[in-house]
Amino acid sequence: GFEPDAPTLAAKMEMPEDKVRKIMKIAKEPISMETPIGDDDDSHLGDFIEDTNNTAPIEAAMQAGLRDVVKDILDSLTPREAKVLRMRFGIEMSTDHTLEEVGKQFDVTRERIRQIEAKAIRKLKHPSRSDKLRTYLDNL
Length: 140
What we know:
mainly alpha; Arc Repressor Mutant, subunit A; 2 domains; 7 helices; about 60% helix
């Protein structure tokens, strides 16, 4: 494609060429985010531009709810099982851990940690626990 010139746009839009030139000039000029919008001076252009770096309120609420449900479900396990899963999957931590790392923490073999993890996951699959997460899975 190419960028059409003012006469071409004016003809296609059935507008005067000078008006098209003004619009094109405005479109190229930077506009302050503090530019007042409307009759009141309490609204600014920046108020209407979405901040894509922030989480949407509904998403933040869903994440908080999911965090609470995961905490409740993990708290329903034995403290050891909960700690193993938290470490293995990095829940409420900055990183996940290997079987070996978790084993050292508990002073047991990595095979024993694998067994504890497998038992805990079997418990989590029970409907009494897994149904609490169903709402969040259905919304993905």
